[in-house]
Amino acid sequence: MKYLIVILILIFTLKNCFSNEKLYFPYIIDYNNFTAFKPASIEVGDAIKGKVILKSRKTNCLSCHNAPLPEERFQGNFGPSLLGLGSRYSKEEIRIRLINAKIINPDSIMPSYFKTLDYPRTQKKYLGKTILEVEEVEHLVEYLYSLK
């Protein structure tokens, strides 16, 4: 009986390890250091495209964050300011916050932009998808990192 319990625990642990790997594929998540690495096969993002994404309704970043964009009249003050973000965090630290801020802080209200949507009330057209594509995450990482 003890062996059966040990085997079940081992299976459960391995299942969770592999499911976490698939959860944020193709990114490599370092849960100990709260960083997310991109494989070499993913191209570096474009900061200009990232700025467009930041200002878009798709991400709605400016509803919570203040950014150095004087042309944008309505900016939030609930989330941390994005001014100087690239001086405070590495690209890998920015990336993990975009992918899923709940990895760092389970109580975060920031949306998980690269987590598969599978909530009970998710519309069918969005099920199994992420808010941002890999390329969009990388564009946003480059723009945010440029804010020094």
Question: What is the global morphology?
Answer: globular
Task: Give the low-confidence spans.
Answer: 14-19
Number of strands: 2
Tell me the strand order in the biggest sheet. 1-2
* Secondary-structure element order, N to C: HEEHHHH
Tell me the CATH architecture: Orthogonal Bundle
Largest sheet: 2 strands, antiparallel
Mean pLDDT: 88
Q: What name goes with the CATH superfamily?
A: Cytochrome c-like domain
Structural classification: mainly alpha
Share in β-strands: under 5%
Distance between the termini: 59 Å
What is the topology?
Layout: H1 2-23, E1 28-30, E2 35-37, H2 47-55, H3 85-88, H4 91-100, H5 134-146
Antiparallel strand pairs: 1-2
Helix pairs in contact: 2-5, 4-5
Short structural summary:
This protein has helices at 2-23, 47-55, 85-88, 91-100, 134-146, and strands at 28-30, 35-37. It is mainly alpha-helical. The protein has a single domain, classed as Cytochrome c-like domain (Cytochrome Bc1 Complex, Chain D, domain 2, Orthogonal Bundle).
Description:
With 148 residues, the protein is mostly helical. The protein is built from five helices and two strands. It has helices at 2-23, 47-55, 85-88, 91-100, 134-146; strands at residues 28-30, 35-37. The protein has a two-stranded antiparallel sheet with strand order 1-2. A hairpin with a 4-residue loop joins β1 and β2. α2 packs across α5 (134-146). The chain starts with a helix and ends with a helix. Mean pLDDT is 88; it is low at 14-19.
